Amino acid sequence: xxxxxxxxVPAQRAGEVHHPKPIVRIVPVSVPLVPVQPDSxxxxxxxxxxxxxVVTGYAVNPVQPEPxxxxxxxxxxxxxxxxxxxxxxxxxxxxxxxxxxxxxxxALIQQLVILAAVIFGGxxxxxxxxxxxxxxxxxxxxxxxxxxxxxxxxx
Length: 155
Fold this sequence. Notes:
Layout (H helix, E strand, L loop, with lengths): L9 H5 L29 E5 L5 E5 L17 H54 L10 E4 L2 E4 L2 E3 L1
Antiparallel strand pairs: 1-2, 3-4, 4-5
C-alpha cells in the first residue's frame, strides 16, 4: 500500500490521506449520419395469391454462397494404408496393455505365494520351536506329593 523506500517514519505515514484521482474518459465525437438516397430504386414486384390477395414488395435476390474449392481426391490405397496403420497401432497398444496386465498379475501371485509361505512357515516354526511344558501333555503341579494334572486329582 505504501512505498517501501520512503524517508518518512511510520507515524508520519499514518497521518497521510490519499485521495483517489478520477479517470477522465475521452469520448470520440461521432459524425452524424446523413440519409442518402440510393443510386437506383429497386423494382417493386406484385404477386397475386390463389385466393385473390395481392402482395407487393421488393424483389430480393437470394444470396449465393461462395463456391467451395475443389478438394483433391484421395486414392483408395492411401486411405487403406492410413487405416491399416491406425489399426496396427491400436493392436500394438492393446498387446502392450495386455502384457503389462499379465506381468502385474504374475507379480501379485508371486507376492501372495511368498506371503502364504511366510505365514505357514511361521506357524510350523512355532509348532516345532515353541515353548512346550515338560512332563508330557499337561501341566504338572506337585503339591505335598499329590499330582494334579489338568484338574484330575491323583493321590
